[in-house]
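Could you join me in thinking about how sequence relates to backbone shape in a protein? We need material for that, and I hope you will provide a protein of your own picking. Label the sequence line and the structure token line clearly, so we can match residues to local backbone shapes. Would you write everything just below, so we can both look at the same thing?
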Amino acid sequence: IPQVQPRAEELSELYRELSQHPGLTTACLGPDLTTQYGGKYCSLYTEWSQRDLARAENIKFCRQYLIFHDGASIVYSGPAGTCSEIKGELLSRESPSGTLKAVLRKVPGKEKEKEKQFLEVWDQNRKVKSIDLTALDKHDSVYDDDQFGCLAWSHSETHLLYVAEKKRPKAESFFQSKAPELGTSDEDTGHPKKEDAPIKGEQFVYHDDWGETLSTRSVPVLCVLDIEGNSISVLEGIPEHLSPGQAFWSPEDTGVVFVGWWHEPFRLGLRHCTNRRSALFYVDLTGGRCELLSEDTRAVWSPRLSPDGCRIVYLENNVLGPHQQCSRLRMYDWYTKHTSTVLETVPRQAWGAFPGIYCGALPGMCWAADSRRILLDTAQRSQQDVFVVDTATGTTTSLTADALQGSWSVLTIDRDLVVARFSSPSCPPILKVAVLPTAGHEAQTQWICLQDAPPLPSISWSIRTLQPPPEQEHPQYGGLDFDAILMRPSEGSTAQKPPLVVMPHGGPHSVFTAGWMLYPAALCRVGFAVLLVNYRGSLGFGQDSVASLPGNVGTQDVHDVQLCVERVLQEETLDASRVALVGGSHGGFLACHLIGQFPDTYHACVVRNPVVNIASMVATTDIPDWCLTETGLPYKPDALPDATQWAEMLHKSPMRYVDQVRAPVLLMLGEDDRRVPPKQGLEYYRALKARGVPTRLLWYPGNNHALAGVEAEADGFMNMALWLLKHLQ
């Protein structure tokens, strides 16, 4: 015990240092300007996020750069001034010409007033409009999330489009004694208008919402601000069975294009679920007519209009099934009304060929200036790369094949200037820029570093590929392999033979790409080797890999992780007597399985919001379809599992093996988790306590599934590291 305090101070200093590396979130290129000598340059505005441990919050700051270019290459680029913190901005968007900027801002209310929202318009030197949306009372809060939210300029730059929660009628008690304050009167009768009088008995009506991280999103509406007239209108004509979002102006500003999600018979969780029934729609501003633009039996998202206003590309998945899949790229021609498939799903990943699309969204600006090519980033096995896609031919070219190995993301492309983010397990995020070469020459893209980050030479990493043994092959999807990223300390007292921390990812249909990750990097600096396992079912390996896992959770994924651990312990100089597990969500599900199925391998375990009993989770989660799909059962909203299906869910759960667990377990639970409610972790905690297994539970109020609050994340790291150090001595 006396040794813990100095070690804790050492760990907190290490965490403080590594958590200061900022993340790059947004980039926006200003209009081209010409110098007196004829050279062209533009400004680049970037936004970054950083943890502020003293304030226990994530802060945003901005930094500007200048890029001098000749259209074919970048002549010079560099920062213009230092960075400054951004406060209160929820959304911001530059107008098409780059001369105006719209900002949605939150402002604390005075005394007992609630927080207010203002929509501002800025020109290049001042704020020209500031509209109090809360006072206008046309709708409830504006959405600032990336699921529904948008802030879109009309092409004429006279109107702004955004999404907000529909205004609900005021409600009051049946026993309200005070005369309500009446609103406007009807001109003919003098009586109060019906919509202004509060409705009795509606105070406690339940309103269905969109689940994890979207609990305040129930009935979104599309709203338009007329900038000159200072007036706001809520768009009519959107069918009541749809929740609209991701909207933008149609060519010629005649109407609005949006994604509509079906919400009947009830809403399922939408965050990280690209398999919810949805379609692309157009609503006409004059007649209020709503028109379907895509198939209405699929899941669609991320619509993007080409610069010439002729084409819309969007991503498409099948409805239900795995929450994340290999997606199709579809294109709708505005004038011919024809829809084509640009890229189909890819059954198997093959090096040198396009791996398939596995991304949460297309970049906000993804079109090249020719209105023919688009840019996207996607997982390619255990890396993430940037590709250019010719929408006319479906050909793809990697822009990062010959660049640094790691994780690349497109932030924006404008006038063929590309802005990207790069990171690796030993390199925090850095800012890169390039000029997109002409069609056919994209492989010659030259990336220039605009904002560097100090690399961590004390961490080395590599990617290894594993093939399951014949008896563990999938009967339908044989021949699948999988990857793992091994990080290890390259200096320090444990560098020669470090203890091993095994981290399977959540999802299960997600992936560790070789990018910057705070927890693994910090554990490596403490002296642990870290094994990040992309078991079969991960994204980036083809749709067959994704399809192989449902029905086999608790066996196929568990055996893949165990095979990987045994192979690494054989082939690397690691301390096989000191192996631990760390995992969250489905990664926690796997960790709890592994300490039960292979109790001799693991000597400590840390889990964050783990799934431990699928049968008890199905009735409490925002994604009941996940419980049935991953168990290998069909999901229908009106179906009730029978006794054999309940048994199958329990049979595939870690709780089945709790009697074999010996490793000490640290649990971290988010009180507000809607995805894997904390009752799951409590169930496991009580089962372990009853069996005398050393266990500790950390309960984080105000935190949801990700446990991403700055305070919870920092406290979680400290407790995790101290738990591992204590039990792997």
Observations:
- Residues 137-171+207-345 form a domain with the Methylamine Dehydrogenase; Chain H fold (CATH 2.130.10.120).
- The first helix runs from residue 4 to 19.
